[in-house]
Write a structure and sequence with these properties.
Shape: globular
Mean pLDDT: 92
Largest sheet: 8 strands, mixed
CATH class of the largest domain: Alpha Beta
Helix content: 10-25%
Oligomer: single chain
Radius of gyration: 18 Å
Number of strands: 11
Number of domains: 2
Structural class: alpha+beta
Length: about 240
């Protein structure tokens, strides 16, 4: 099995540094993938914060409709990250960010990312993101846009996406009435410059929607009087 990354990681319960590795996950790994997802959901105070994947969705990804990369300490799966090649339907995120129909096939979704509680605080989600994005060119199809959804107020998930240079392109109602940011990264246009920076309170979705309608995008966080606010700016086209 080809190792994609090797390093050391701290188990926060044992207070011990351990060797770990990353590798691609396959169909035979499905039972441990679902066990880890269940353990992570169980550990969350707010269960709805994580949009869990169903068995069918995992099977869809593992049957060559995406990519799963896992992190292991010895033989124990401690976290994983997923990319999914979406079906083109009316729910496709490409529509939400204004892509023309011919570009939709170039979109891949960044899906669930989970880490067991005892290994949090090691920036493992970020390392998994770096590794899985390096594997993206090895898929048969070519992709230009990486998209995902994040719930408003989910600061850790937004930080994860901003670290990857993704930006908020839209705020829409998804998943039967739930508000979600749609974030995107254009892999062919990574050196974007911005003007007209402004900040908005995290819970002021009305103001955020107004800025998005005016051509602004969300690009990061800024501390204002000790509180996180979202930073919006206009991309220089």
């Amino acid at each position: 099995m080809k190792l994609l990354h090797e390093g050391t990681i701290t188990n926060q319960v044992l207070h011990k540094k351990l060797p770990f590795s990353m590798k691609r996950l396959y169909l035979e790994d499905l039972p441990i993938i679902e066990q880890v997802q269940a353990r992570v959901i169980e550990s969350l105070p707010e269960k709805a914060a994580l949009q869990a994947l169903t068995t069918e969705e995992f099977l869809f990804i593992l049957n060559e409709r995406g990519l799963l990369v896992g992190a292991f300490v010895e033989d124990e799966l401690i976290g994983f990250r997923a990319l999914l090649i979406p079906e083109i339907d009316e729910e496709h995120l490409g529509w939400d960010i204004g892509l023309p129909p011919e570009e939709l096939q170039k979109v891949i979704y960044q899906e669930i990312s989970v880490v067991l509680p005892e290994y949090r605080g090691n920036r493992l989600q970020q390392k998994l993101a770096e590794v899985i994005m390096k594997e993206l060119p090895n898929l048969e199809e070519e992709f230009r846009y990486v998209c995902c959804t994040v719930a408003p107020m989910n600061i850790p998930s937004l930080k994860d996406k901003f670290t990857q240079q993704m930006h908020i392109a839209a705020l829409k109602e998804k998943y039967v009435g739930l508000e979600r940011y749609i974030l995107v990264k254009d892999l062919e246009n990574t050196a974007v410059q911005y003007v007209d920076h402004t900040t908005v309170k995290l819970d002021d979705l009305e103001k955020q929607q107004q800025l998005l309608n005016e051509g602004y995008v969300g690009i990061g966080f800024q501390l204002v009087h000790g509180f996180h606010e979202l930073q919006f700016a206009k991309p220089v086209l």
